[in-house]
Amino acid sequence: MQKQITEANLRLLIDSLLLKGQRVVGPRQSGTMVLYEPLASASDLVTDELPRRSIKEAFFPVCEDLLEYRKEGQQIELKDIDPARFPETVLFGVRPCDAAAVPVLDAVFSWDYKDQFFLARRAKTTIIGLACTTADDACFCTAVGLSPNDPKGSDLLLTPMVGGGFLVESQSEKGEVFFSTWQDRFSEPDGTQTQALATPALQPLDLKKIKAWLDDHFEDRAWDSIAVRCVGCGACAFVCPACHCFDIVDEGSEKAGKRRKFWDACGFSKFTNHASGHNPRDLQPKRYRNRIMHKFKYYDDKFGQTLCTGCGRCIRVCPVGIDIAGVLEEIEKK
Amino acid sequence: MSRIGVFICHCGENISRTVDVEQVAAQAAKMPGVAFATDYKYMCSDPGQNLVKNAIAEHRLTQVVVAACSPRMHERTFRKAVEQAGLNPFLCEMANIREHCSWVHEDREEATQKAIEIVGMLVERVKKNRVLPTITVPVTKRALVIGGGIAGIQAALDIADAGHQVVLVEREPSIGGHMAQLSETFPTLDCSQCIMTPKMVDVANHPNITLHTFSEIEQVDGYIGNFQVTVRKKARSVDEHKCTGCGVCMTKCPQKKIPNSFDCNLGMRTAIYVPFPQAVPNVPVIDRENCTMFKTGKCGVCQKVCGPGAVDFEQQDQLIVEPVGAIVVATGFELYRITEKPKGSPIKGYGEFGHGKIPDVIDGMTFERLASASGPTGGKILRPSDGKEPKQVVFIQCVGSRSREKGISYCSKVCCMYTAKHTMLYHHKVHDGQAYVFFMDARVPGKSYDEFWRRAIEDEEAVYIRGMVSRLYQKEDKIVVMGSDISVGVQVEIEADLVVLATAVQPQKGADGLAQKLGISYDKYNFYSEAHAKLRPVECATAGIYLAGACQGPKDIPDTVSQASAAAAKVMTLFAKDKLEREPIVARVKENGCVGCFACKKVCAYGAVEEKEIRDRQGNLIKTVAYVNPGVCAGCGTCQATCPSKSVELDGYTDEQIVAMIEAL
Amino acid sequence: MHVDKQKHTFEPKIIAFVCTWCTYAGADLAGTSRMQYPSNVRVLKFPCTGRIDPVFILKAFQQGADGILVSGCHPGDCHYIAGNYHARRRFAAFRKLLEFIGVDLNRIQFSWVSAAEGGKWVEVVTDLTEKVRAMGPMVEFKDLVLEEQWSGGLNNPELQAVYEAM
Amino acid sequence: MIQTIDISSYSAITDAIRSEARRILSDSTVSAVIGYTAGRRVGTTQPIVITTADEADKLLFSAGCLNDLVVYLTKAKKDVPKSGRIGIVVKGCDLKALVGLLGESQLKRENLYLIGIPCSGVLGSLLKPSAELTSETIASKCCECTDQLPLGCDFIPAVTPAPLPDLEKRYATEIARLEAMTPSERWEFWKEQFSKCIKCYACRQVCPFCFCEQCLCDRNRPQMVEQTPRPSGNTAWHLVRAMHLAGRCAGCGECERVCPMDIPLNLLNRKMAKELKELFNSEAGFEVRDTGPLTSYREDDDQSFIR
After folding, report:
1. Are D100 and D209 in contact (CB under 8 A)?
2. pTM score, whole prediction
């Protein structure tokens, strides 16, 4: 279904949601950065900048509690966290490269083990995407088969129109429900042109060819030269909309504490460190290889999807200028 | 899970009066990991200890917390009891609920609550305690004594007499040190050489003493009980085993005009020489800098006249490795030189005393040689410039000493006494002469010392002037000494024939270098530091190294000999056991995490941290890590707090134990 | 000496990190001398102040300490020669860091208390306890423990509003 | 007023680096050279390790050469070849870090060939890489730089860096601003900063002094610092790091530059450097120091804060 909405109505809609007690998350200025954060009012919404971190944390928080424990005498008492407590949330202004990562995450979190924490949040969330009209030199969604107005993952997709306002397309049942709930705010499309979409500079990559090379080159000296500069931080993984590795740790004291789940990154030297002290990925090139392999081969093998949406965040934040698009181009040329 | 036993002591009523011990026991029983908790009237008594021992067996306890008095009081008692019950003693901790609780608080409720919390902290701590085995270190019962002055000689003889092997190393060609240079000694005025030379001979003849003269310490490895000391035996050019000490070489040597430093350069010696006639060993040494043979390649007279063929121009320095278990450092002192302003040292020199350019301004040791019957003048007091007998002699005390502006703030301790002695010796030898002494104040404590000083003034007519000399200068054949007498507030000017400066006592040159080799600490003047100024005055902080004599601070002969014997006694205490046992509270390096930044080594006051290479099976160096020598580590844990990755851990005070206590709060 | 027995509304938690040779012994002396002081202090014994890691202080604040005392041997008296000299530098630097991030330095006392200074121990502990009691609870680190990133929290203020609406 | 910074010397420096790298690689003085090369995006660079003379032309120096390459010499980077002598391009600030590592037994001078850069400044960030170098875009560390010309290098291009214009000392200003606040205002400031942290450890990984193989903060027995990226653990982590760097940090500012969450981390390090200078007259420089301010002591150190 297609509708359109004026800028003013969009803001009214957000404020209405907030008034209703709904949690609304969208890009907002937070200190020096734009981040996806709960909005206090529609005026918080920032639509002209890609947030520094991706939307994945709405379903897969930086850190969350899984359970609480308490010990007394010889007794141990456990208390689970109830996922039903997660609030209904509307995500506004999600970029297509972020929204597209959500179905990718769905696959892994609902695979053999159903991650109740992820899925509960996911079920209670409506994603309202926003197509891009500008791109910088790190953007490369078009190179990995997506586009600046790709509807993947969005329940509703907004596309800016010439002269203001947005064209709105529903992409799912949740989107339809949202339309019907808030029908007063939307109007039928009047044929106004949408603005020209962003045009990322990088040419489309041949992901099949890249995967074919990866299939055969687990051992290859190229990894050394590609990854020699990697210093092993987790910046790329943490800003990535699709990376989803996590660790679990008990925090607190002998007497009481909490079990927590928090982001982990395959670049960390301790990521695959065994209790024995042995580490199969003992050097950085092996870790970086895993990053590329996981994104463009393993995930594809298992779920038929690529674990990269071309948002370019990792390129922007990498301390040592590693450019995943450049790496892919290099592999494609081999 | 742990099965901890908690034992609450009433200490008669000392604890139970303010702490509800039953409630503490009841609360302790609920703490996670506690399997048994009880209280008892006197836990340290035999029945109390048996209660602990029985409970360990009955309740299969894995750790024990005794809540009673200070661990400083009874930790040993309970650890021993626990050990008797079959647990490692370090699995027992004490919670101090007496000194830190019942005795200092009156409110029963508050005190009880605090006692419960203290017990809780120790319960958490003891869970993280590890079994610690006692550390034993083998002991090589052989001592090294560095320095052959009276301190080194005394220490060597004492240790050797106790039946242990001693290696005595002396830098000069002969042992004897400064005491051999002295004429008479205070306060008895007995002849120094008469009491010194028999001891030197004893050293030479002692079956347990190996003597290396003309030798220096090259390198020191190892630790208490197990040092490996490399001694450089400098080329003497005379074979010690062949030489008979007949002295013909010296009489025939054509180089006869070399100033003899033993005589403070007043007398002359040959190029092949013994520093003084009573030298031990009585084996000459060739001074290669002044020997014609070494300078020009022509001469060789000594070699030709030597019957036993002992002269060996080809001799090389020899490196000898001596394994020893203990080291006594007795390197002595030297006198402050008014001419010198050593770089990097606080010493500033004495321009106002002529910078040493006036020949008749001499130091105390030079005066000793003038007064010595075996000295260059045969015991006559004759001034260096023209050999005349001085009729007016000015002695100036505290030259260098106690003078912050000149760089030395300490008192040299011996000068007041030896200056008094000098005035007497002078008066005895030059009956019509007059001695003047400029002094700040007289520091003469000690048995018969004050009497001795008074005698110099009252019987021997020395004139003591309280005040400092501001300047002195040569005027024809006199030295004009300008000073002030502050007791009467007038300027004084004396035309002296000879001026004797009581210059400060300083450590030997190179004392800092030797300290670095030994890994011992020293103060800003390079005096070696004792482990504790009062309670461990002869031990270095570095285990197995002891101090004797003036290398540790200015001392007179009686103090030096006392300290030398004390150091020897410490060595004998160490040697009384075959193995050294010590509490296993030492730091341990976790080599996995260590990256070899050696911050631990930098902060270790004991030199316990060594560098250790880790190699793979092919012998390739993987990394260099720190290694803490358990024989040397004192267990302060400064290394651990300094280590950024916490790769060194102090047993008994691990991070786990401490964090557990904090988290129990 | 009798401490005024009035009850206070707030009793601070004071953690003392002390060396075993001087300050712990000084505290023992206070005990054997039956001196009285507030019961708020909990003593952690270390071999030497040189062993005290600044992390322990952070940890103690996180665990709810309202005031912290670090005490050891007077300069020159260290049982281990120089541990207290190293500690002195370490804490000179660390307190500057704490001050810079906004910890009120009145909550941290450093002192030299020898084995003979039972009286000084009582004074130091009493003064610190009273000072911190007047300052009120140290809430900064405790509050931090409750803080969450927005996405992970279930008890954020903004969520409370959401729950109330539900 | 925005001033343009003169970096006209950088093309001559690039030429000089290339020819020197070519020379030392072809005559086997070194087995590898660590330098900068161009990135795909205009104006960006990335570190590169070259091992043959043919690759020398890949090297360059520009205002985009932000990295402190010294991190590649540390044990944290096991995969960089360390056999034989290594050539490395260093700016003055980088060299101070390298000197610090020499003092901490992490490197041996004889195994290094230092190519010094007469530096006129670099950009503060590459988020907008094509920016021109001006008084606005220049890195904060450059505003307080006193070491434009590194000393003690094996090779320095014969170029005199243009003196930097009088730039606002941003760290000094910011430290003074914070110092003037009340403790609770400062706490609020840092609480907000630290709460942003996601524990990606980029600050640690780029730091030349974070060469520990086993970071204290990765340990869980005991857990000295909470591992999770929550405000509490974040605060502890940044304080521990500031403390571990105190007296060692050479001021390369990499931690702050790479922080994806814009936490002003170097502010902590600059503050500690300032305090240690005042307390113990100790600061990072080009002279190798055997001990740092926190691994040494003086008997007469200040103890006015001790009762």
Report:
1. yes
2. 0.81
